[in-house]
Amino acid sequence: MGEMDTLKKEADGLKAQIEAARKAVNDTTMAAVASGVAAAPRVQLKNRKTLKGHLAKIYGLHWSADNRHMVSASQDGKLLIWDTYTGNKVYAIPLKSSWVMSCSMAPSGNLVASGGLDNMCTVVNIKAASPKTLRELDAHEGYLSHSRFLSDTELLTASGDTTCCLWDLETGKQKVIYKSHVGDCMCLAVSPDQNTFISGACDSTAKLWDIRDGGCKQTFIGHTSDINAIAFYPSGTAVITGSDDCTLKMYDLRADQEVNGYQDAALNAGVTSVSLSSSGRLIFAGYDNFNCNIWDSLKAEKVGVLSGHDNRVSCIGVPDDGLGVCTGSWDSFLKIWN
Amino acid sequence: MEDLDLPQMKREVESLQYQLAISREKSSITVTELVKWIEGCVCDDPFLNPELMRANPWVEKGKCVIL
User: Where are the WD repeats (chain A) (predicted)?
Assistant: First the structure.
């Protein structure tokens, strides 16, 4: 056998051992543990505000840590910063490339980042006298699918080149490269303690990474198609993934495996986006079929629907204070619900 | 999905060895604690505690003002 074949055999053997180790600790089910929990009530939310201003498909949104402002990105070539309480646009930032796929805002509210098919992540200082490009982070060899700030000096990106990266914004250089996925990285979420982050990719796996040393700590399998969306539980001990296979899954980080799944035989639309209510009890999931479904994360039952968009829901977000949920759509509108 | 080359395959094997070695806790403990944690936060969750949703920033407070 060639060296490659030996290594492949070793890899398959290790994967089998990991599955056996997971089975060995799997001594209960979420259904069993949650059987004593009262079902969540039906959740009927009203569309409180519709933010109009984009002229093309919206691809990303991110709430500010102040729970009031939000950044959204559209393939009309603009980032818009909104005051969601008034519905006013505070800033409009024209993008060099209109093929944007994601946007994010720093916890400080000083910086926003965006990127897409230009393979770059552009960071803009919105608190300067007029919004000014701070950095163009240019090293990924594929599209930029997602980004999240750790602070005003560090940013994580996920890319179609199958890697994720931690950037130093003071130098504009890559600090750590996270390599292990074998498909395009589509999404990432940072743990509440900022020591780890999780990425979802087109190889149907989610991977948990040590932010500082770049090592892949855990790989979560089970999905049968691209993972488009991912979110950390506020406890930091579980994550939710949403996939083109039309399902969501909850992975328990401590037991290192899937502990709950959210699917409906009637649903044959891929999940595009996911966000959690502040307790994590409710999962808001955006789908290709123009709706957002609300799931009880413990009972795995649908408890509500948000319908009102005329095209795919591409992004979704709950602000830190948990007072509402915003959906962004290819119909060019953002809607706030509670 | 590209096939890995030799150095990548070596790294993948090393990574899998590392991932195998992590300590896994019994799901009877971890899932129970997760459920408890979530239940404990429900009273602070505006979507599940209507009292908290009273301070709704996206709902008109007073009557319209004629400018």
Answer: 51-92, 137-177, 178-219, 220-261, 306-338
Average pLDDT over residues A314-336: 97
Q: What is the ipTM of this complex?
A: 0.92
Burial of A222 (0-12, 13-18, 19+ CB in 10 A): middle
Report how far residue A204's alpha carbon sits from residue A6's, in angstroms, rounded to the nearest whole number. 25
Nearest CA in chain A to B15: A216
Alpha-carbon distance B46 to A323, whole Å?
6
CA–CA gap between residue A156 and residue A211 (Å, rounded)? 9
Q: What is the mean pLDDT of chain A?
A: 96
Among the partner-chain residues A68, A255, A324, the one whose CB lies closest to the CB of B27 is A255
Residues of A in contact with B58 (CB under 8 A): 48-49, 84-85, 324, 336, 338
Q: What is the mean pLDDT of residues A316-329?
A: 96
Return the residue in B31, B32, B41, B65 with the most chain A beta carbons within 10 A, the one to mutate for interface testing: B31
> Quick one: chain A helix, strand, coil %, rounded to 5?
10, 45, 45
How many whole angstroms separate alpha carbon A9 and alpha carbon A257?
23
Indicate the pLDDT class of residue A259, thresholds 50, 70 and 90: very high
Q: Cβ contact (<8 Å) for A259 and B27?
A: yes
A200: three-class secondary structure by DSSP: strand
Give pLDDT tens digits for A155-194.
999 999 999 999 999 999 999 999 999 999 999 999 999 9
Indicate the pTM of the whole model.
0.95
